From TrEMBL:
The record marks H164 as: Important for catalytic activity. One of its GO terms (cellular component) is mitochondrial matrix. It holds the Pfam family 3HCDH_N. Residues 210-307 form the 3-hydroxyacyl-CoA dehydrogenase C-terminal domain. One of its GO terms (molecular function) is (3S)-3-hydroxyacyl-CoA dehydrogenase (NAD+) activity. This is Hydroxyacyl-coenzyme A dehydrogenase, mitochondrial. Its EC number is 1.1.1.35. Belongs to the 3-hydroxyacyl-CoA dehydrogenase family. It comes from Dicentrarchus labrax. PANTHER family: HYDROXYACYL-COENZYME A DEHYDROGENASE, MITOCHONDRIAL, PTHR43561. The gene is hadh.
């Protein structure tokens, strides 16, 4: 028994040792991936950004530098030299690669922030699972796909969770930390601690559709669309009502345009397929029509509103 308790002690202390995340690999260098990389590098982590081409990665790092310059303008307003030093120090923490397989071998955390496509996510994690060290935690930044479905392509179900950041990552304080029924407590604690070290406020979520924020926000946006569709309120009145009556910074239809009508449709269609009888997940003809016409919101210049 002394021997087994010694073994137990060695195992648990090694698990605890592995909880500290220092080296982070981020798969996908788009808006979310770059934002997470910036925040992780700013808080002393060594970060490797992975994407399909060097050109994409160069653009991403340029974006991070631009974002850091905006941060520094405020933070180091009266000390430009210190600001420049900070930028260089942060950028030194960021490296890039097009070879995820070799990079993850030195990683404590592999965080994926790519297109919301289950098959692609599963394929990437399935491949990386074979080469990543045993202690490495895998996490997805998905906003609408079940974490357990993504994790199913790996053999590290206990070391797999969700870390859902919000856009723009450097500004938004929240991280939803998602545990599946198989996620170990050590892994979950690791992800919570990592979020706190980044200067974010984590909330603990179950692996249910939309976690907390989107589970409340998307049906709210959809109900506003349906209300307008039924002729029970103009889009302007609906938005003004929620801004002035509920204190929201944006009305629901403005918010839909900001998020992207294609994104809202993608999320609601996915949930509707999972739970067709749930009236909260019912599709909207008006939303479908706008997406079909390519009116996707701010990014295309028109959604519910026109943008110059």
């Amino acid at each position: 028994t002394a021997n087994s308790s010694l073994k137990q002690f060695c195992f648990s202390s090694s698990a605890v040792r592995n909880v500290v995340i220092k080296h982070v690999t981020i798969i996908g260098s788009g808006q979310m991936g770059a934002g997470i990389a910036q925040v992780a590098a700013s808080t002393g982590h060594s970060v490797t950004l992975v994407d399909t081409s060097d050109d994409i990665l160069k653009k991403s790092v340029k974006g991070i530098e631009g974002s850091l310059r905006r941060v520094v303008k405020k933070k180091f307003a009266d000390k430009p030299e210190a600001g420049e030093e900070f930028i260089q120090k942060v950028l030194q923490n960021v490296s890039t690669s097009t070879d995820a397989g070799s990079v993850v071998q030195g990683s404590d955390l592999v965080l994926e922030a790519i297109v919301e496509n289950l098959k692609i996510k599963q394929d990437i994690f399935g491949q990386l699972d074979k080469v990543a060290p045993q202690h490495t935690i895998f996490a997805s930044n998905t906003s609408s796909l079940p974490i357990s479905d993504i994790a199913s392509s790996t053999s590290r179900l206990d070391r797999f969770g969700g870390l859902h950041f919000f856009n723009p990552v450097p500004m938004m304080k929240l991280v939803e930390v998602i545990g599946t029924s198989a996620t170990s407590q050590e892994t979950f604690d690791s992800l919570l601690n990592f979020s706190k070290v980044l200067g974010k406020t984590p909330v603990s979520c179950k692996d249910t559709p939309g976690f907390i924020v989107n589970r409340l926000l998307v049906p709210y946006i959809m109900e506003a669309v349906r209300l307008h569709e039924r002729g029970h309120g103009s889009k302007e009145d609906i938005d003004i009502a929620m801004k002035l009556g509920a204190g929201y910074p944006m009305g629901p239809l403005e918010l839909a345009d900001f998020v992207g009508l294609d994104t809202a449709k993608f999320i609601i269609d996915g949930w509707s397929a999972m739970d067709p009888s749930n009236p909260l997940f019912a599709p909207s003809e008006l939303l479908n029509k706008k997406v079909a016409e390519g009116k996707l919101g701010r990014k295309t210049g028109e959604g519910f509103y026109k943008y110059k």
